[in-house]
Amino acid sequence: MLNNIKTKFSIKDLENFTGIKPHTIRIWEKRYNLLEPSRTDTNIRYYDEHNFVKLLNINLLYNNGFKISKIAEFSEEALLLKAKEIISDKALEDGAINSFKLAMLNFNAVLFNDAYNKLLAEKSFRQIFVEVFIPFLDLIGFLWQSKSIKPIHEHFISNLIMQKLHSNIERNQASNFVQSDKTFVLYLPMNEIHELGLLFLHYELTIRGYHSIYLGQNIDIESVEDVKKLYAKVHFISYFTVSPSENDLDSYIEKVYKDLIDNTENKFWFLGKRAIQYKGEIPYSGIKAVTSLEKVLKII
After folding, report:
1. Residues 162, 196: contact at Cβ < 8 Å?
2. pTM of the entire structure?
3. CB atoms within 10 A of CB 155
4. pLDDT tens digit string along 194-233?
5. What is the pLDDT at residue 268?
6. How far apart are alpha carbons 118 and 133 in whole angstroms?
7. 3 state DSSP class of 230
8. Which helix H or strand E contains 162, and what residues bound it?
9. H or E segment and range at residue 126
10. pLDDT band at 1; cut points 50, 70, 90
11. Which stretches within 1-67 are classed as H helix?
């Protein structure tokens, strides 16, 4: 059973979680009796956790070539069995994301790990992160904004994903650096908490054999300057989603140049929402706004 924090779902919640339009859900209800909504004491329609899970499985089959009329013929047991039998790559990803949704709502780390291990039997960690975790994180960001989930759900699932990143980074760091001509220093500025993107870049650098130092959240420039003294050629990389603010960004870049870049071979790249939105020209050599992780990996 799902945690009692979220056991009732509106039809809008179902749309947000599955992408199926309310009009289609209602047709499936009336024509095929696939779902059985309940009503509150004030006559507002809602769906319980059983209907929610059932719709996730229906959506999985439907997206993998099953006609809705055929799905309607399945018993509850047959529907669940068919969902488990699908083994195509796309279905594997969809099935894992369904499990991650349920794990998130139920705060169920066992279910999350079971789905992750099934993916790991077929895919590399990088494939899982790019093909499954990133789309899933985009989805839960939307679910949070639409109030279909609460911040605690997002924090719970993000921390589980972060655990997988840390374990893979630790494995990468078990061997000596292959690429030793430069050092990467990754950090998040003060008041910036969106860590997963930068942590994944740290993973990508370590798997390529680079010396990558991850400093984490809430790091001021003065603290980063201490690392600068230890290495001759440093690539500083940060991720700006909410901080520094749009109004403070130029002054932050100026301070970075003065404290970390000027009169050195060092470089500073920043990613995230602020980099994507940045329209001005940066007047300092060695500083670059990079709009995606893929572009960073191409220029390192």
Report:
1. yes
2. 0.77
3. 11
4. 888 899 999 999 998 899 999 999 999 999 998 888 888 8
5. 95
6. 14
7. coil
8. helix 151-172
9. helix 125-128
10. very low
11. 11-18, 22-32, 49-62
